[in-house]
Each structure stands twice: as structure tokens, then as C-alpha cells.
Amino acid sequence: MKRLHGIQLPQRKHAEARKIETIPLPKLVRIPMLMHLGTPCTPIVTVGEQVCVGQKIGAPADQNAVPIHASVSGTVRAITEFTNVNGSKVPCVEIESDGLQTLYPGCKAPVLETREQFVQAVRESGCVGLGGAGFPTFRKLNEPQKISMLIVNGAECEPYLTGDSRQIIENSGDILGGIHLVMQFLNIKECKIGIESTRPAALKQLAYAVAAEENITVCPLPPVYPQGAEKVLIYHTSARIVPEDKMPADLGILVMNISTLAFLYQYSRTGIPLVERVVTVDGNAVKKPCNLRVPIGTPQHDLLKYADCNFDKVKKLLSGGPMMGITLYSDELPVLKQQNGLLALTRVSHSEPTACIRCGRCMNACPMRLMPMELSRAYHKKDAEMLRTLRLSLCMNCGCCTYVCPAKRPLAEENQLAKQFLKEVES
Ligand code: SF4
Ligand code: SF4
Q1: Which atom, in ligand 1's list, is nearest to the CA of 399?
Q2: pLDDT tens digits, residue range 168-193?
Q3: Which of 126, 229, 249, 331 is most buried per CB count within 10 Å?
Q4: Handedness of CA 329, 332, 335, 340 (dihedral sign)
Q5: Domain end call among 321, 348, 375
Q6: Which DSSP letter does residue 83 get?
Q7: What tens digit of pLDDT does each residue of 113-128 get?
Q8: Does ligand 1 lie within 6 Å of residue 412's CB atom?
Q9: Could you give the CA distance from residue 420 to residue 403 in angstroms, rounded to a whole number?
């Protein structure tokens, strides 16, 4: 099987050998009412109200959204406004912790006998894909197409990030439990787990965990970026190609992140919804790279402090990895459900782009076999027809083209703008 293109990146997995740690409870959490793809939730608590861990504080506004729960027990101090990275504003519930972490009495293991019950329970858990996209998990499980293969995404291809690897090493039983649940309720007969060949400890642990499983296989993957992108992962684990106008479900494939599966199993046993997550904290301003389990809504500052960050030297803060991470404008911003990393960096590159020298490196790096330099030209000419002909919709904004371009052209960023432009033209 031919390998898809992509790029080799320095791994910098400094926290890989560090066990997942729990940090001291934050004094105050700020929980935005939008941490999933879709519409924001409506706050259902009032200022001054006492809340418990796992209590619902945000109700979904439509049938595609998932609820939001309190991550600490304490008092609702305020309901404010939170500015999303795209500039939109959503309500935000602020809770002052009482330090007790009292569990909401309604948190009970759900009754799971049918697929409908399973899907509904996953929705109630507030689960979104923990790999970073924030897609509500119950919607993936509710696709009408018959699913014949579950592909588990254990590829953690961005530099620095190690939370999924630690989950494999420390919680492989929960991951397997989650796989069994999904296979049972969706009647899936085959499962493949993709993980880079450069993660020997995690690979060994997974191989051990699935040794007695006839229908579950571990697939070592080449260590290229973006190995964790859905279409790349599907191709390298199953040799199937998802056509431009199709979704994985159209091919009978369901892709799920490895930490999401571990959470689903834990929820099925305890009924405690998604109120915490594992975040890798790293970057050259951090003296103690680590993997931290933190309540949703914890200020980034608390994580950085725990990781012994040299705050004076920080020039850039990223939520996620260096390739697809989102710049944070303040270390007071809260940890969201979909945040898998926090990088504190001491340098920001400011190279001015120069003219394209037609070297073709961007094309060779693109895993989707697109022509980023031509896409760029079409975008600058505002040529919607050409953007469609060049299959802009296949671009997954992985950033490989930008990374390799010697002229420092912001190709991936332009593709994002081009998608926005096409949307406006087509609306
Ligand atoms: S950002 Fe888009 S065009 Fe650039 S390499 Fe990735 S998929 Fe290809
Ligand atoms: S890598 Fe940069 S310079 Fe080379 S062809 Fe692509 S856009 Fe042009």
C-alpha cells in the first residue's frame, strides 16, 4: 500500500514518560456554554446557587448539542460572557469551588440495554471528541448508515502532545471497555486501533490488552504528520479512501479517539459526565512538561504554574499542538472539553512571505494531493470556480504546506479564508 504524503516533524514528546497527575483544585472555574460544534447551551443555574460535580448547568438549545456540567462543587458566582476564538460571545458560568468536590446525587451509571439508550446516555454525558475537534460523540454513534468497522485513533501526531499515549499506558482497560461498548451497541464486527510505530510503550500495552481479542487489531502507523487526520488514518489502517463528497460513515467506518473511548467506559460505570480532561503542558517556557488531569473551566494559568512555567519569557500560548493549535490571548482563559495541549513558547516567528518560487514542496507535502500554490492563486483572484476545481473542500488545514514552504507563504491559513469566501459566495 502506498503511503500518503505528509511531513516529518520533531517529536518533542517531553512528557511521554510522565504519569497523568492531578493538580490542586482551582478556586474558580469558568465554564463557557459552547464547547462543541453547534449551538451554545442555555445556562440553567442562577447566581448564588450551590452546585455539585456533574450537575447539569447548561441545557442544549437544539437536538444536535450536548449538555454542560459543573466540574467543581461550590457556588455560582456569576454568569458572564465568554469570547470564543472566532470572536463570537457565549454565556459562561463561573463557579467558586468549595474544595469538597461533592458529587451530584443524580450521577448514576446509566441503564444500557439498547442502542437508543446508549446513544442517549452518551449525549447526556456531554461527551465530545477529545482529540480536539469538539464534535458531539452521540451524533457519530447515531449515523443511520450501517457501520462495519470501528477505527480507533491513537495517533498523536502533533509534537509535544502525549495525553493519549499516557491514557493507553495507564488506562488500556478502560479503552478496551469503550471499544466493546461501541462494538456491542452498534453491532460492529471489526475494530482497528491506529498508533504510531514510534510509541513503543503504548504499542506494547495495547498489544497486551487486545491479545485475546479476535476482532480487534493494533495497526502500527508511520510517524508522519498528520497521521491522526481522519482520512489519513482510515487509509493507513484500512486501505480505504474516503471520496471527496463522502463521509467515513458512507463507507461503513466510524472513527473515534482513544481517550473518548476510555471516557465512555468510565461514564458507563459511574454516570459521572465529562467534567475533566487530560492536558499535556509543554513548550520551551515550561520547566516541568507534564500531563495533567484538570476540571473543565480551570484557568490555563493554574496548569502553567504547576508545570513551573517561566511566565516572563512566554511570547505565545497555544491550546493544542504547534501545527493546529489555537493561539490563546490570555492565561486566564479556561480549559475547554476539546483542549488536549497547552504550549508556552518563548519565540514567535514573524517571517514575511515572499513570492512563490514554484518549487512544488507544498504539493509534495500535502496528504490530500492538493496543489496549495494554485489554491492560493485562485483565492487571491477570488476565483470560486477554480477553488472548487482544485478541490478546496478536501483541505483539512493540517498546515503541512505552510510548514515546508521556503517562501513562508501562509497557504493553510489562506485555504481557511478561501473556504469562508466560498461559503459566502454559495449562500
Ligand atoms: S493545509 Fe490543506 S492544502 Fe495544505 S497540506 Fe494540509 S490538506 Fe494540503
Ligand atoms: S512551497 Fe511555497 S514556494 Fe514552493 S511552490 Fe509551494 S507556495 Fe510556492
Answers
A1: 1
A2: 999 999 999 999 999 999 999 999 99
A3: 126
A4: positive
A5: 348
A6: E
A7: 999 999 999 999 999 9
A8: yes
A9: 22
* Residue 13 domain flag: no
- Boundary of a domain, candidates 226, 247, 270: 270
**Residue range 125-145: mean pLDDT, rounded:** 92
**CB-based contact 48:55 (threshold 8 Å):** no
For residue 255, what pLDDT is reported? 97
Range of the structural domain that residue 255 is part of: 115-270
Q: Is 353 within a domain?
A: no
- % of the chain beyond a pLDDT of 90: 89
**Rounded (5°) CA angle 171-126-23:** 50
371 Cβ contact list (under 8 Å, min separation 6): 362, 363, 390
3 state SS of 74: strand
Residue 127 shares a structural domain with residue 255: yes
CA of 233 to the centre of ligand 2 (A): 26
**pLDDT surpasses 80 at 350:** no
Which SS3 state, helix, strand or coil, does residue 98 take? coil
Residues 140 and 218 grouped into a single domain: yes
**Cα–Cα distance for residue pair 82/394, rounded to 1 Å:** 32
Atom from ligand 1 closest to the CA of residue 226: 6
Can you read off the three cell numbers belonging to residue 26?
482551582
Q: Can you read off the three cell numbers belonging to residue 244?
A: 471527496
Instruction: Give the cell for residue 205.
Output: 500495552
Same domain? 172 vs 257: yes
Cis amide prior to 226 (ω within 30 degrees): yes
Contacts of 204 (CB under 8 A, 6+ apart): none
The b/e string for 59-89 (b: 16+ C-beta within 10 A; e otherwise) is: ebeeeebbbbbbbbbbebeeeeebeeeeeee
**Residue 30 belongs to a domain with what CATH number?**
2.40.50
Q: Is 29 in the pocket of ligand 1 (CB under 6 A)?
A: no
Does pLDDT of 86 surpass 80? no
Mean pLDDT of the chain: 94
For residue 2, what pLDDT is reported? 67
Q: Count of domains in the chain?
A: 4
Q: Measured from the CB, is residue 397 less than 6 Å from ligand 1?
A: yes
Shortest-distance Cα residue to atom 6 of ligand 1: 398
- Cβ(130)–Cβ(337) below 8 Å: yes
What's the rounded Cα separation, in Å, for the pair 47 and 27? 17
What number is the average pLDDT over the span 377-404?
A: 95
- Beta strand residue intervals within 154-263, DSSP E: 190-196, 216-221, 253-257
Instruction: Please check whether residues 292 and 245 belong to one and the same domain.
Output: no
Give the predicted TM-score (pTM) of the model. 0.93
Task: Find out whether the beta carbon of 405 lies less than 6 Å from any atom of ligand 2.
Answer: yes
Do 265 and 280 fall into the same domain?
A: no
